[in-house]
Amino acid sequence: MTEAPNPAKMSQDPIAGLEGVVAATTCLSNVDGQNGVLVIRGKKIEDLAGLVPFEEAVRHLWQDLGFNSLSAIKNSFAEARQVAFGVVSLLESSPAELSIYEHMQLGLAALPLKGDLPEAIAICGALPVFLAASHRISNGLQPIAPDPSLDTATDLLRMLNGTLPGASEADALNRYLVTILDHGLNASTFTARVIGSTQADLKQAVLGAMGALSGPLHGGAPGPVLDMIDAIGRPENADDWITEALARKERLMGFGHRIYRTRDPRADVLKAGLKLIGSSNPKVQLAEEIETAALAALRRVKPHRPLDTNVEFYTAVLLDAIGIDRSLFTPLFATGRAAGWCAHVLEQQKTGKLIRPSSHYVGPKPE
């Protein structure tokens, strides 16, 4: 009788999940998990997020695309938003049961890329339009056309809510979009590079990356952070709630990271942004109390595991504080990360090399 594959043995494979395997050479970003450092093309994330707008951070990442000024890339994004709005009528006539994320994918699939705009600009400029329009359509509201005089973050909030946002809200969204711009070879970025390595066009690579991001192990954590905060309810409940959750072997949303063995530097960037909002949102104070209680409980219950606050925790709190519904967290992440996806695809395609790893066969042998 042929021995069946042993799933337990397969899961213990030292290269399962490609852990530690170097699959690309890149100048785009470096994630130092041991020291809690994220570098975006030579700059620490703390030297970008909160200090420059989204467009300037993208220009920094896209140095090879030839944008010589902030105004040049801002104007190109504005033009891309206007082109994308021409596709919104398709979203209005699409099946109502599609999710906001699926509407965005549909809009991107239908987006024409034959104009004068670079494909990366056309794609990244379109996603804010598709996000806002899909959200409004799902709520029975009329989509709002983009305003080419505005920056990406300000116009996105205006297209979502129908009113011009305050400077603090736009600054907070800019901070978030810059924070998530790129982060090494995570699942969605690696997917984009694999697709790009076939010389498929940029749109197909971004659509594939969006598919990878839709999985709950990659793109779904910020929403459950708010669910946890809502369940705790009050600061005095935090210790008991967290202790009981850990006793049930439940994962605390917003804590621990696949790469970081110390604090995720993006968490502090976003936490600093909360202090600048001056929001009266009660979740902000509650979140800080919960973070303190959670870190103490994790050190007590799992003293040998380096579990600290990750980007999802303060992503949830920051976006909630500026009025972003939790159903938009993954779509908004895709909107910010698309610039990183495009950069990785273009970098991969310069090599001309098809990504084609090998696998370790553990199935039955022929008789």
Short description:
With 367 residues, the chain is mainly alpha-helical. The chain has helices at 7-11, 54-61, 70-85, 88-92, 100-110, 119-138, 152-161, 167-179, 187-197, 202-213, 216-219, 222-232, 238-247, 265-277, 282-301, 311-321, 329-351; strands at residues 29-32, 37-40, 43-44. The protein has a 3-stranded antiparallel β-sheet, with no helix packed on it.
What does this structure look like?
With 367 residues, this protein is mainly alpha-helical. It folds into 2 domains: 29-215 and 331-351, Citrate Synthase, domain 1 (Orthogonal Bundle); 222-321, Orthogonal Bundle (Cytochrome p450-Terp, domain 2), CATH 1.10.230. Helices cover 55% and strands 3% of the residues. The protein contains 17 helices and 3 strands. It has helices spanning 7-11, 54-61, 70-85, 88-92, 100-110, 119-138, 152-161, 167-179, 187-197, 202-213, 216-219, 222-232, 238-247, 265-277, 282-301, 311-321, 329-351, and strands at residues 29-32, 37-40, 43-44. It has a 3-stranded antiparallel β-sheet with strand order 1-2-3, with no helix packed on it. Strand 2 (37-40) and strand 3 (43-44) form a beta hairpin. Helix 9 runs parallel beside helix 17 (329-351). The termini are close together. Residues 1-5 and 7-11 have low confidence and may be disordered.
